[in-house]
Every structure is written in structure tokens, then in C-alpha cells.
Amino acid sequence: VTAPSSPGPASGPFEHWYDHAGVRGGHRRRFVDETDQGKVFFPAHLVPYLDHPAVAALPEPERVALTVRHLYQFLQATTHVETRVVNRTAERIANGRSGVELSTADRMDAFKIYCDEGYHALYSLDLADQIAATTGTPVPNLDYGTFVDRLASTAHELLPGEADLAQMLQVVVFETLITAVLNELPADATVVTTVRDVMRDHARDEGRHHRFFTQFFHRLWAQLDATHRGRVAHALPTMIEQCLQADLYPVRASLALASLDANRVEWVVGDCYQGGAGAARTREITRATVKMCQSAGVFEIPGAEERFAAFGLAPE
Ligand SMILES: [Fe+2]
Ligand SMILES: [Fe+2]
User: Is-above-0.85 flag for pTM?
Assistant: First the structure.
């Protein structure tokens, strides 16, 4: 059922979209190389293996190339998830196929998200391509299907028989986490300015998406029956954890390109990717998503709070 409406919610997240969205008013970011000033392509503390003995022993140019490829991975992974996962759900919402009752204005907001994500994909690839041309470190030709496929297969496992609902929830989780992830870089003065600028541009748009998907989740939750609420409440912590898990396929590929042999690659991956994102960082990145669950009433479900707490996601 679609309720008619024309101007859009007066104070909604997309009230000023035509003027403020990156795709509407932003300009193309041109990469300026600042490596001679000691700037890095990704914050060293967010590249898990830089201090590992096998990587620390590499010549400096190989370590720089690893950091450049770490940035490529971030840009490419975000791009693939947004166009292949987020936009699949944005389309369903926009075309009134989500099963959640929405106004025409809300559906148009979902099309605004669809446009935003397409533009984010374009400028993420553009930035990677410009950096490759300047630094001479090629963008590895990987399709990031492993991450997308893992989301799809876990959607089936977490809510058997409810794949569409599971996919929508994965998108809600991703879209309420991503702003915090993007906000880790712009304030970091050690990182090259163009990278920080692109992350800031992206975070601005994602702040609007975040508000949209929080409202969307509230409505979705309100429409679920008691059985589904219980199943969803118990599946959400796993979904949140999976959104934060590193995709090891491009990590292994990058380490191999730095001329580490297979044994050393596994040594590094085994040592550096065991503990997930770490408790403090997980808390920081997931805070808004957990708060959204709390405000929707997820923790009123018996056992839900304990389940979240077991994943380090207890509400504050
Ligand atoms: Fe995006
Ligand atoms: Fe988004």
C-alpha cells in the first residue's frame, strides 16, 4: 500500500538532498600526492599487519604499496557492497517491494540513496585509479565476490526461509555502521588530504542514509509479528559482527603481491585477523546501530540483551 504524498517529510534526512548530496553539488576530487611530506594512504593503526615481523622486514616501498592496496581494498569493498548489496535493497524499498508500508516521499528518498551509492562507487574507483596512475601501484583486479557471497549465504543461514528480510537487515546494519567507519579517516592528519576529503564527502551522504535506515528499521520492526521479532533479535548480533569482519581474500592477494610466500601469508593472516576489530573499536563503530536496536525495542525481546552482550554489543 502506498500513501500519496508530494513534497517529502519537511524535516526528513533528505530535505535538502537536491542541494547537499555529493552527486548533486560535489566536485570531482583530484588526487594530490603528499607522500614526500610523509603522509600515508591509510592510518597505520588501521592496517592490522604493518607491524607483523614478516611485513616489518619488507623493504619500505613494499610496505608503502601494501598501505596503498589497503586503501584500494577499503574503496573497492565499500563500492561493491553499496552497489551489489545496499542498492539491491534500496531498489526494493524505492519500488515499493520491501513489504514495509511507505509513502511515495519515502520511496523517493530510497531512490536518492540509490543515486548516492552509484556516485560513491564512481568516485571510489576514480580515486583508486588516480592513485594508481601517480604511485605506480596497480589496483588489483579482484571482484570482491567473496564478501558479497558471504553476506548472501549467511542471510540464508541466519533467517532460514526469510532471505529477503535478512538481506534488508544486513543493509540496515551496514548503513548504520558505515558512517562511523568513514569518520575514522577525515580527522587523521597523517593521511593524504585527498583520501580524507573523499571519506568526508562520503560520510556526509551516509549520515543521511543512516537516518533513513534507522527510521526504516523502526517501521519494519513495528510490522513484524512476535515470532519474527524473536528471530530477528537473535540474528542481529551475528549480522553486525559479520559486517565488521575483514575480507581475507584481497588481504592474502595483497600480501602475496608484496612477495610473501604462501606460508608467510598464512602466518600474517593467522596472527593479525584473529580478534576481529577489537573490543573498543567494535563498540565505537557499532554504537549507533545498537542504539537503533534499543530505540526500536529489540532489547524487550527475552534473551536479546544477553545475546548482544555475548558479541560485545551490549546497549549503553
Ligand atoms: Fe555510500
Ligand atoms: Fe549508504
Answer: yes
